[in-house]
Write a structure and sequence with these properties.
By secondary structure, the chain is of the alpha/beta class. Helices cover 46% and strands 21% of the residues. Strands 3, 4, 5, 6, 9, 10 and 11 form a 7-stranded mixed beta sheet that branches.
Length: 300
Amino acid sequence: MANADWDLFQSLHSVLQAGSLSAAAKSRGLTQPTLGRHIEALEQRLGAPLFLRSPRGLTPTDLALQLEPHLAEMNAAAAAALRDASGAADSLKGAIRITTSQIIGAEVLPPILGAFRRENPEIDLELVLSNKTEDLSRRDADIAVRMVRPTQGSLVARKVGAIGVGFYASPDYAATHGIPESLIELDHHSVIGFDRESPSIEALAELNLPWEVTRELFAFRTDNDVAQLAALRAGMGIGVCHHVLAARYGLVRVLANAFNFELEVWIAMHENLRGHRRMRLMFDHLVAGFQGYLAEGRKA
């Protein structure tokens, strides 16, 4: 593919990701007219429109949606190539891209990564927070911290342990509304949870609870785990929380004998990265860091 074509496809990928020409132009460091010309040129080459234009904005056509997964792979490969080129394999310089869930990235990883940066100031860190499982095989990220066993091939993975999770409430909520004595009584309380069907809802459904687990169960709904924790700490209701985080924030345990489960913690990276010194160093650092976090949970 010619360099010019790649530039046009990069612009298409940016628009699909950002949802508008102005946001895509900003992300690419281009002017909006320049990016618009890229889309028009690509449409001429492909002989079909990529977006339907209306006063409400751009709507991708079927052609654009068909191209989207290929563009994501191309973009991931290009980003991985830039990270690889940022430092030699045996060097402690360059970039490392890590992916993990929202709550792990916001609440658990910062001190772990902070310690790594103090020891390795010439290594740049990129953090992707998503509850979606990123594809390490196509190098969406270099290293992943996952709450489920990795199933993709060609990965180096290590199980660190398991994070204990239970129901909690803030002291203010407990003082005002009391604490339910059974799962049945929980139905009379404000419960914090998810807005859409998700792996977490599916996990709850497997616990044989006395009521069906649907979004209607929750009085406060958000798909952002960090927002759930913030709502829990603010006294908006009873919610699920790591035992370690609950102890840190002084939350009150609810239904300890009736509700408890564990999330496995896995550190994974593509096997081709084992020869990169900085990747191995980060992999081992994450293992040690999460071992410390899990040990803190056993004391909680």
